[in-house]
Design goal:
alpha/beta, Amidase signature (AS) enzymes, eight-stranded mixed beta sheet, 37% helix, binds glutamine
Amino acid sequence: MTGLTDLGIAAIRKGVVDGEFSATEVATAFNAAVAEAQVALNAFIVTTPEKALEAAAKVDADRAAGKPLGTMAGVPIGMKDLFATHGVQTTAASKILEGFKPQYESTVSQKLWDAGAGMLGKLNLDQFAMGSSNETSAFGNVVSPWRRPNDTAPLAPGGSSGGSSTAVSARLAPAATGTDTGGSIRQPAAFTGISGIKPTYGRCSRWGVVAFASSLDQAGPMARDVTDCAIMLEAMAGFDPKDSTSLNLPVPEWTANLSGDMKGKKVGIPREYRLDGIDPDVAKTWDDGIAWLKDAGAEIVDISLPHTKYALPTYYIIAPAEASSNLARYDGVRYGLRDLPDGAGLQDMYAATRAAGFGPEVKRRIMIGTYVLSAGFYDAYYTQAQKVRALIARDFTEAFKLVDVILAPTAPSSAFALGEKSADPLEMYLNDVFSVPASLAGLPAMSVPAGLDRLGLPLGLQVIGKAFDEQGVLNASLALEQRAQFTARPAKWW
Ligand code: GLN
């Protein structure tokens, strides 16, 4: 049985349902791929081959008994280590949570298991999902399976969902969960030549997902193509009374309604995204995307999102502010690490635990967040950022009176080398320039692979949609996918 690890969600489920291969064979093949790549790529923090096999055995038994099979039946997936998994270490890639085994399961992961998926392991990420390269993980960075030609320099897999992007692109998993606060599904998907969608804020429950910035955090699927993303998102989404910001709406039939026909649709091209000094390959890929959507029948409309230039600074005030509050709970009392120096009091324990447990980027964000929320600076920074956030959201509302979806690049460049940007946080933050506006506005946005740049590395195109219109986003993305004909994949060196 060869080639099982080349299959995506739809093909695996179909093969299992048709009896072409068993779910156990699929899980075994992916478990082997995971084990083989672990040292070189470091995509997983823990692997759980037994969980993948256990879920597969259940699917095989259900099939033999003639029971109905779920939409993810027989599909082993990687789970970003930001989702609490019952009895399986959940760390957010931070030392402060090392050894933490939740006594509960996140809503999203539970829904995936209920749909018949199995777990290959917990995927590495930037610590507390703060980063764009995976270098802030306390468990060592993930290495992208992609390389520049004749160059063995390790490249960033994107972040924070870099374990997810690597696992899917290196064929260690047919799909993986991601979370996106300011681009962490879309940018790693773009860096590794895969697809990923961040749904409308509130579509996927945040219950049991380690919180970074609660008004922005949203889970979504990362997979090999648009159809697989639609299938997996349907399994992940849905109202959850345990999350007060969960959308109380039925989950649409995104997969059944997929169509790459863009006739009658208007696609907005935001002029503010055409930055001075934009990478020529990124600009060309964007132009290709415009031509493809035109070819699919869409009308192209020039639009303006005037507050775009304030999105990054706004994000880097609001996200750290919320993070500083969310991360206050890690105090050495309730979770994971406890550092209690001899003779120390409670305050000393808090300080020692947090000093030892949080990495430098997390500490930077806590300090920025605490500063912008402090009595003296709250109005100058936090209140101001909230106002600008409203203006950014209003830009989109106005634009969507004219167009159905917006097309933009996902990231300003292809994957950079590990170490290239880690010394300068501002340069790293600039990587999020095209992804944070949709996050601040809570809108669905997807990245699909669109081509290779001059270095032979993948570039992604981003489709941003109206709130609740994942279907429009998926359909425009499908139209792009059908025309991009992106078949490149990393040559195996691990
Ligand atoms: N790169 C962004 C950050 O560091 C986005 C992270 C995310 O979406 N989780 O905040």
